[in-house]
Records
---
Amino acid sequence: MSQVPKESAPLEGYAAPSTVEEALRLIADGDATILAGGTDLMLQTKPGGRLPYRRKLVNIRRISELRGVSEKDGRMSIGALTTITDIDNNDLLNTVTPVLPQTANCFASSQIRNAGTVGGNICNASPAGDMIVPLLVLDAEVELSAWTNGAVTTRLVSLDKFFTGPGRTIKQPNELLTRIVFARPDKKLFAGYIKSGPRPALEISTVSAALSAIRDNGKLSRVRIALGAVGPTVLRAVKAEAYLEGKTVTAQVAAEAARLAAEDASPIDDVRATAWYRRHLIQVYIKRLLENDSQG
Ligand SMILES: Cc1cc2nc3c(=O)[nH]c(=O)nc-3n(C[C@H](O)[C@H](O)[C@H](O)COP(=O)(O)OP(=O)(O)OC[C@H]3O[C@@H](n4cnc5c(N)ncnc54)[C@H](O)[C@@H]3O)c2cc1C
């Protein structure tokens, strides 16, 4: 194991379970590093990386029950090991909620999309995690599973409450994110996603934005706006959402919503962009998301 950073304790074991129960038993002591596609983990755990391995490495990639998209009783379910390519190509999602394939299509390169999973994207908890942004506007919840008192237990947590900071979540070390669920969107719901960058599919977002709302007789309701890479976590633009409720989109309304969304964000200056430019992009994207819909 030459890849183990100096400060890590030596890995004592590696396992590649093929069922959820087996995986949960293996991580029950909270001393395992979980490996899905490895596209984040490999960089973080390499020598000089920020994450030391825990005692065991548990590769969950062979758990086929965690891969795929389904619908039951009006609830959509996406397995944690569903890859970004799977999402991009999924017929059910393309019909029911095209914003998810649209986002997957702006994600990294084909190689990364083939390996990277939606569960890994969420658990990595990057403020720039692309799939998190549209899932937030769909009111998604994550299912966390654990092996407790000799049985598999699960809890559902709103994605909105899952992140506590960059790279940090409420998930306990003995828990596996097993699936993402959300209500099948209303037929009148529209949703869109925009990501910055001259080559959006190969860039880590400088700013990303998703917006969803129901439009009935021209009036918006159930408005959700999520912004990526403009705060410590992907965040909801709650002031802009509240402002848009019950409104008909006009150029003036879109401009005010965009201004409020920029206020909702807390961007920083970094190597990719200044805070000023990020606030500017938020405003451009919110107007575009609203105006594109107003043509629909
Ligand atoms: C070149 C490159 C380009 C990239 N471009 C983008 C991009 O455009 N947009 C973007 O958002 N990201 C991008 N990424 C980041 C990365 O590819 C994604 O975040 C990806 O979805 C991570 O998934 P994974 O399966 O590879 O996760 P892993 O690397 O296997 O895991 C990531 C973290 O989540 C934990 N984990 C994974 N699955 C679970 C689970 N089911 N339950 C509990 N914990 C779990 C792991 O222990 C680890 O801490 C890029 C990465 C690279 C290397």
Note: The radius of gyration is 20 Å.
---
Amino acid sequence: MAKHIAVAGKGGVGKTTFTALMLKHLIESKPGASFLAVDADPNANLNEALGLDVSITISDLLEETKDPKAIPAGMPKDVFVEYKLQQSLVESKQIDLLVMGGPQGAGCYCYPNDLLRKHLEHLSENYDYMVVDTEAGLEHISRRTIPRIDVMFVISDSSARGIRSAKRVNDLIQGIKTPVGAVYLVVTKTTEGSLEGLQEEIARTGLELIGDIPLDPQVASQDLQGKALFDLPDDSLAVQAVEKIIKKAKV
Ligand SMILES: Nc1ncnc2c1ncn2[C@@H]1O[C@H](COP(=O)(O)OP(=O)(O)OP(=O)(O)O)[C@@H](O)[C@H]1O
Ligand SMILES: [Mg+2]
């Protein structure tokens, strides 16, 4: 059974950076394992961090299937949707990627959402790891498109506001029906002394702080040049910090 790992937090805190570097570490440390990455953030950018091209998001293709004229004559709608979903998988040597896209327009999406749930359930069985980059609202998790999370990392930047937002994400996690295993807090973009200053706020979240990721000039310059984070050197501060966190979390 695939291990399901999710990464959540408010916008811009460093979720995608963490997700990409976690995948980098897992790929290097678990040779032969297979990985499915899911970008469930409407503001999708995981593909860039991983250096992969995306042609269509699931949201776009579900929109297309709403038009009855798009369905080939004689083909049942569920077969058509399933076929389209299969086409949306970006495959690469080390990692496959699904991009949810969004936000979805008005109208009831119950039907495609049900198909998407089943599709993801079957698809994830083919992998050793499913890693989901999600947003603070946990929409796909609360709607149960992603039915189970084994390890959840809640990301915050080094600000009191960020930590308070992480607490709200944790409150949300505690309130949803989806089974969630271990939940950890990761503080990113830290500088000397920033963790000490945030201690009280961190204690209030009720979350276990599993580690921090220092502000890393190599991450910033990689982003500035539009290069994949995947290609960061092993001696980068962020790469080393993520490795330590993943080992500690026993992912
Ligand atoms: N450890 C770090 N050191 C330096 N810069 C960082 C670090 N982590 C993230 N950043 C920078 O912070 C910005 C936001 O990071 P990232 O895209 O990973 O956040 P996100 O939470 O996925 O954002 P979004 O909500 O927009 O998807 C980027 O410009 C990234 O380069
Ligand atoms: Mg992101």
Note: The longest strand covers residues 180-190.
